[in-house]
Amino acid sequence: MNGTQMRSTGPLHLLGVFYVGMAGIALYGQSDGLMTWVGVNRPVALAVALAVELLAAVLFAFADWRRTQHGEQAVAARLLSVAVALGVAAMNFYGHEGSVGTCALYTGASLAGYAVWVLHTNARRRDSLRAAGKLTGQPPVYGLGLWLRMPRTVWRARTLATANTALGVHDSIGAALSEKATTDRHRAIAAALRRKLSASLDSVSADIAMVSYDLEEVAARLAASVDYGRLTGLLAADIDPDRINGGQPSVTAAMAQPATDGEADKPQRTIPARAPRTRTAKPDAAARVAVALAENPTGTQKDIARAAKTTDRTVRRVLSANRADTATAVDADTASTNVGTAELVEVTR
Question: Where is the stretch described as Disordered (predicted)?
Answer without folding.
Answer: 246-269
